[in-house]
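Checked the freezer inventory, then went back to the computational side. Two predictions to log before the end of the day. The first one is the construct we discussed on Monday; recording sequence and tokens without edits.
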Amino acid sequence: MLVLGKARLSFSVVFSAGAGYLIATEAFQLTQFLYLIAGGIAITMAANAFNQIIEKDIDAKMSRTANRPLPAGRLSVSESFMTAAILTLIGAILLIKVNALTAAFGFISLIVYVLLYTPLKAITPFSVFVGAIPGAMPFMLGWVGATGRFGIEPGTLFAVQFLWQFAHFWAIAWILFEDYKKVNYHLLPTDRPNEKASFQIVLYSAASVVTALLPAFGITGSLHLSLWSALLVLLIGLYFVRSALILHKNPSVFHARLVMRTSIIYLTLIQMIYVLDKFSFQ
């Protein structure tokens, strides 16, 4: 189950949801928080499991995925489907205990990832835009889980992680370009790794940083960021953008991997800064 649901990825995804909850909460409720985290993990693992069922034949053709449970024959489709269905049910039950809006967004995320993003990968690079929607949900979902409402604040958190998705995923698509080419996946904004693709990575990394700084200007409702925290976000953001610029000037798999790793560090650190700022300066 852990391999089928990509447990490690699932846990990293719900880190964002936990951060969003802590930023929003005025009265921390441990039970609600645990329901959010556990429900988020279950829904994310369910989405990953459904994805592997749909892509089992494609996974068998790529070196990085050939050893997954389905293409390797360790699990059958029926076993995998049952696992995914149970995870979906568990996730839905747990998220509805948080609040109805959180459960609704969680279910939408699952549907978009499985029924839209997964099949679109074989059709158009636009699939990355579609996939960025469920990928950006967790940070926002944490706020909705804590407050039970949607507004400018969770919308801003969504935008930060939505824009971040492009630079992060295009870096991965650059690294895995040869593997993806085997199954006719075209996930870069251009048909191959080149300066046009790296320029888009620069643009979206910069856009994510700018969006992450908006709470410092008092235009995002009750979502605030102090001057010192904003400076930290800016410094970390410049480090992120710098890695994208290096890739643009020196296009290579090595530098794409640098962008991917830097993007993970960037998102993790700014989420931590948002949380620490909430409890230290506000």
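The second is the one RB wanted added to the comparison set:
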Amino acid sequence: MSDNTSENPENQPNSAEKPVTPPGVSAPVAAAPWEREVLEKLVFAALNEQKAARRWGIFFKAITVVLVVVALSAYLDLGWTGSDGEALGRHTALIEIEGAIESEGSGSAAVVIPALNKAFSDSGSVAVVMHINSPGGSPVQAGMIVDEMHRLRKGYPGKPLYVVVDEICASGCYYIAAGADRIYVNKASIVGSIGVLMDGFGFSGIMDKVGVERRLLTAGENKGFMDPFSPLSDKHKQYAQSMLNEIHQQFIQVVREGRGKRLKESPEMFSGLFWTGAKSIDMGLADAFGTVDSVARDVIKAEDIIDYTQHEGLPERVLKKFGAALGAGAMKASMERVQPALR
């Protein structure tokens, strides 16, 4: 009887398919198909996450470089305008004032005065136009701007300084406008309001009704002047009124010196009233109708307009975007006393 085991190869063990495991060593357990699939997904997910992290890292580094370059440019005041008149050519210099005349913003002396100096000192500018749209504001800021306008007009007698009014040029804004050679308006512009005010609120009556006691200690009998939680005495009221009258006279003097014989004074002119642009021309508060373009084209004869306005830099915009400026403004408002305003 033959040995079937030796003759039939199917019954022989396949060493390639079943490797021999040495004694004392556990045989490896083959991974199930679903386990391999999960491991592959995890590996690929980790690789993709690393690639995405590298891409975002490169992106943020590039953004950082761009922001640094822009910030340095804003800090160093690098731009197209400058003192090289030949590079800019013959042109009309433009300065924009938008909003309240105050210590911050386009109506502040710190912003307007450097722009005026650049505009006048550029040999390519043949005239300077201030394009103004403001309801007024600080007499201090307006006064500093007007003083610089007078100084530059004397230093550059060949360069006229014009004001072009947009929607409104009232109070502190007109204080500035009166320092120009000529004032151009639209027939519907609002012009005037030559007066001074000091406003605020008094809460002493409400406090008495609700039984709240104000405990204010001062060193100096007038240190609590204009405190909104204390009654306003006749003495303090008279003092405040005399101060407002003094500033009002300063305002009137600036208008008279700036407008000269063109001014057709009337009892109402310095009462705080305001008028349309058309009426302001009749009263001598303005000279003619005009826009920035028409003045540059027809009066100055230099249609190319270069903007010298000192625009807000990148750091300020970023801070305001994230609310830092809002917080600073709230703190400033809570700390400041009531101040006179040309509004």
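For RB: Residues 77-86, 316-338 have pLDDT under 50 and may be disordered. The first strand starts at residue 91 and ends at 98. Let me know if you want it refolded.
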